[in-house]
Amino acid sequence: MLHKTLQDTVHDVAGGRPRGRQSPSASPRGKSVARAAVSACLALAAMGALPLSAQAAEFRSADIHPDDYPTVQAVRYMADLVKQRSNGKMTITVFSGSKLGSENDSIEQVKLGALTMARVSSAAMHNICQNTRVPSLPFLFRSTDHLHKVLDSDIGEQLLKSCEKAGFVGLAWYDSGSRSMYTRNKPIKTLADAKGLKIRVQQSDLSVAMVEAMGANATPMSMGEVYTSLKTGLVDAAENNFPSYESAHHYEVAKYFSLTEHTMTPEILIFSKRQWDKLSPQDQKILRDAAKESVPYMRKLWAEREDKSRQVVEKGGAQIVQVDKASFQQAMAPVYAKFVTTPEMKELVQRIQTME
Ligand code: GTR
């Protein structure tokens, strides 16, 4: 493919005659012009100076979730649109199930440009791009509708854009429902039940602070380590949404799922800024549009999966526990005080809270 498209470039460089007519390379002088052009293109491509738009682009995207998970399905949906609209010039292969490493590994690779895309939890971006903390703030959204309204508005765009300085083009937000606590030994019903527990959290200062504000001890670790940590009692509890609780089999080792619904941290689809800058505006538009169009598809899959996962865990012996939510909510003021620090964040939070 690369060869073919480079030839097309050579064709342009060497005179751009339509196919079927005698090309300059048919004459001895033409041949040497074409040869020189090929070498120049190869050299430029090797240096990364040739716009990717002149080459066939094969992108890889990482996800820690299994094949049937809504995030993986949504990026595959985007990939189909991109392939179709670029006439096969741009392809995206999604590597599911942590085949390309943990979320933190993928983020690092995307920053370097060694990997093109990753679908990660926005919590994994908190310490890299601080505005991504905003939609993870505890009890910020009143409902899924409220979350969607915010993420679909200019606020969502502003938050996605804020990662560019750190080397990431934010393409889309995906749903992740709300996260709740689950425990091995006894159910959490009120804030007092969380006190002193060792709770696994995502690798983010904000996630640590949320659990500490509940009076518990936070143990940040990657998702891949959680099952064993729960099973062996290294931690007493963890927190996640129903689909992750189910697909990662955490319900088998921590059966009390307490509906704290303390955060609605969304998923984010990131693209390497290094690679993005080499694409033509037309190709960038194809990618952006396709990512946006995968969002409603993802939301539909997500709603279905939340219901299905809830049924699976209940059948598997998990107990769904109602909690005194207000007691958790009241404990969160220090988290806001610590993390909503810049005028921009303060304004965003205020706009979100007052959005109808
Ligand atoms: C899930 C999320 C993953 C990962 C995981 C975790 O809800 O989809 O990307 O961040 O939570 O808790 O590590």
TrEMBL record:
InterPro entries per the UniProt record, alphabetical: DctP_fam, TRAP_DctP, TRAP_DctP_sf
Location of region: Disordered: 1-31
Listed Basic and acidic residues bias regions: 1-11
Keyword tags: Signal
Gene Ontology cellular-component terms listed: outer membrane-bounded periplasmic space
Lineage top rank: taxon: Bacteria
GO terms of biological process kind: transmembrane transport
GO molecular function annotations of the record: carbohydrate binding
NCBIfam families assigned to the protein according to its UniProt record, in alphabetical order: dctP, TRAP_S1
The protein's name: C4-dicarboxylate ABC transporter
